[in-house]
Amino acid sequence: MKHTTSIQGGCYTAIATPFRNDEIDFESLGRLVTHQIDGGVAGLVPCGTTGESPTLTDAEHEEVVRFVLKETKNRCSVWVGTGSNNTAKVVYLTKKAREMGATGALVVTPYYNKPTQEGLFRHYEAIAKAVPGFPIMLYEIPGRTCVSLDVETCARIAEKCSNVVAIKEASGSPSARRRFANYRASRSFSGDDALTLPILSLGGIGVVSVVSNVVPAEIAAIVAAAARGDFAKANEINDRLEPIMRALFLETNPTPVKYALAKVGIISGHEVRLPLVPPSERTRKEIDAALEKCGDVARATRGA
Predict the structure, then answer these.
(1) Which of 65, 104, 203, 214 could pair covalently with 185 via S-S, beta carbons 3.0-4.6 A apart?
(2) Confidence (pLDDT) at 296
(3) What global pTM score does this model have?
(4) Beta bridge partners of 140
């Protein structure tokens, strides 16, 4: 696959990894991929947080990526989650993603070992140099990693690493505005469904979404409306989706979204791997209620 140093805006779905009896459920994964493509997403992101990457073996990681690439048939881009707190492992996984034909790699900031800003820069520099010409998206989510990319570090990475083409912003921090200004808003994606509209209004070009697992066409429609400057329509769709956006984050992602996907029949069950556990009865009831409203939202959005 020929790679580019730019990235298309739009909705990119951080897809779940369905399990059955603690094995990857490829039949369900195939339905999920088809659901996304039919919904018009710009790309898929397998093996990220939503894909329960910490519990996938290296062999499973490769199997999921190969399967998703085969199923998409080049109908959308595929950005593989290759993040780790071990730089050498990220290099290995990113090289494998390139070899398999992925579009690019999503690389989260290293978690647990809490590197300094210099360590963060060198981490990304080493990865970028190991896969010249292969696009990389930074992933900023300090709530899960306990470290954050400073504005200056983002700018330094942008200057020194030409194949780092985008950032997934999930910090929920006021400093995100400065990060956009210094890193280039035209490379910025929301990494939090609830913050997609604010990020798009600042010049961001898309979202790496969890909610789009369930309603891909509707999340894609929000981004498309914003891209053409129709924020009234984007807000209208976003407001209608508020119940499902809220319900899918009542407990740790991806347990709620897997339950929702199973409820609507896209995957066969909502099994997760320890230390995650299925959602509580209270959360399931809230998701059920939110899903009931999604049918009306879908009809209104697609009929608009």
Answers:
(1) 203
(2) 61
(3) 0.93
(4) 169
